[in-house]
Amino acid sequence: xxxxxxxxxxxxxxxxxxxxxxxxxxxxxxxxxxxxxxxxxxxxxxxxxxxxxxxxxxxxxxxxxxxxxxxxxxxxxxxxxxxxxxxxxxxxxxxxxxxxxxxxxxxxxxxxxxxxxxxxxxxxxxxxxxxxxxxxxxxxxxxxxxxxxxxxxxxxxxxxxxxxxxxxxxxxxxxxxxxxxxxxxxxxxxxxxxxxxxxxxxxxxxxxxxxxxxxxxxxxxxxxxxxxxxxxxxxxxxxxxxxxxxxxxxxxxxxxxxxxxxxxxxxxxxxxxxxxxxxxxxxxxxxxxxxxxxxxxxxxxxxxxxxxxxxxxxxxxxxxxxxxxxxxxxxxxxxxxxxxxxxxxxxxxxxxxxxxxxxxxxxxxxxxxxxxxxxxxxxxxxxxxxxxxxxxxxxxxxxxxxxxxxxxxxxxxxxxxxxxxxxxxxxxxxxxxxxxxxxxxxxxxxxxxxxxxxxxxxxxxxxxxxxxxxxxxxxxxxxxxxxxxxxxxxxxxxxxxxxxxxxxxxxxxxxxxxxxxxxxxxxxxxxxxxxxxxxxxxxxxxxxxxxxxxxxxxxxxxxxxxxxxxxxxxxxxxxxxxxxxxxxxxxxxxxxxxxxxxxxxxxxxxxxxxxxxxxxxxxxxxxxxxxxxxxxxxxxxxxxxxxxxxxxxxxxxxxxxxxxxxxxxxxxxxxxxxxxxxxxxxxxxxxxxxxxxxxxxxxxxxxxxxxxxxxxxxxxxxxxxxxxxxxxxxxxxxxxxxxxxxxxxxxxxxxxxxxxxxxxx
Length: 761
Fold this sequence. Notes:
With 761 residues, the protein is an alpha+beta fold. The chain starts with a helix and ends with a strand.
């Protein structure tokens, strides 16, 4: 410690850590004349290199003097050996860096005062004398000290080598090795892909993809979607292998093409016609059931699919709604059918939905069979029906056409068997076939969210065979088929072409009319479902773009003020949701814009109530009710939902709400016209106009307009009407009067005052 203090280092105790600068100062001091380095020890770890100062013992000063040179040379050899063995110059740098981060000890400047040096000189001489006269004991102990020093050297050298090896290994792990060759990736590009996803698949930064797009003249952001052609060009320009991924719709449409040999199948017959003309009653007669008794209002409001064994063979019947709101359902029924049975009531004749069904049949190029129903009722005239249908290009065989006509009474079962024979004949002419082997594909007829079973979907198989356990994909929904139930309510394991079944196991309720197919795995189904969801989001975002400033300016100039009626719809089936949404939107007018804020299948939930409350919307439950939590939330919000089971009631309710939002319409009636002859001021009444009533009569407090040169310059109300000095309530034609107009003082001689009334229509 004394030697360290002599070197100008302020050391408090033996555990003090010295940095490199302090060590150098201490070495320079000890290498001076008549001074030698005391015993020094260097730690082996790179993180804990310490200089431990051992107290000098006066009895072994000769030992210290004799070994100081060996210690210094040993340190030099250790450093050279470690440097040569590691062969990494950075190790020494790292060691010095580790030393430099140790807390520095404040050093005092070297002592230069001669008086102080003279005071210290005797002590130094004493030490020298003690060192210059070595004792016998110290000389005899020198070989033993050298032996221990060699052992210490080896330990320190091994520690230094170990530390250098650990540091080298650590640096080799942290070093990033750049690939010597460019990485080529297999990039799967769908119909639409974002810049971020493309960059991720190509293992490059998004900025690099954007740069390639900029070279093509395409300005894009990281979240912007690219079409397949552009994405392929960029991926190939980056040197990657490209695989085109078919979109969901293409994949599902191709699924309908089955390479297996076709075999005869049952015909699919769709029953259409105007509401309450007896479509479901006809199916009851064929199936010998009472379906119509279970339907709200006695009318069908969703598609029903039934597989029926008849004397002419198996037939699949689809029952479609007849109400005008269910146009989309009827269109779907026409698309997936082989034959259309048009039911027309003999006592009612051709109606709007009858004409619409004919148009669907023509658009789908499906043969038509006309069933003239209710022939047992008074006033029935089947011949009149044939004549009316001629106007719509439907010509009966009896009149030289090619359309089969059959007179029936669904209630009594009259003529039903003959109708089935005509259907079998028509199916034989069509030679209907479909492959039975292979993966199943077809159409979603209807979907409903069952409280106990979850999504319950009615599927119509068009090719292949659907089996329990198959992975079904339809739109954005997919899943493994858990159960299959036929139209008779029986559980089945498989369903072939033309067979409708209800299945469970899908992730949600797909849209009615969507194509379904069986895929090889859930991974493939999930990939296509996610892709379909992305397309739906992009489509929705494109439809909800805000108005441009130019459009807003034009609307403001036109004085466009449209009141909005918001509706939240929950229904029992997807088809009903679709039909109600379209019907409600169709009620919009130039004055009231009707918007469907939300629509879905299943019970009314808390989220539906929150949405209706936030958007001030009418909450509609069609064949569904609210759950317990939603009921409590509606009570606290003082909200009353509208429950209904017949679409007529719903439309009437919406119309009443629309009527309440419409701006009242007024009609004007001119009741009098006066001309200003003179204008004078009165201290009591202010500005008074002397007028002559030319037509009709002027009434106090009546609405008036001031016309100057035929142009309306002011509109207000009469606040005073005088005849002479008397206040009067009315002045008639040919009588002079004085009048005052509320808050108007710019009236001049020659102006005309027109009085009128407004009546609300």
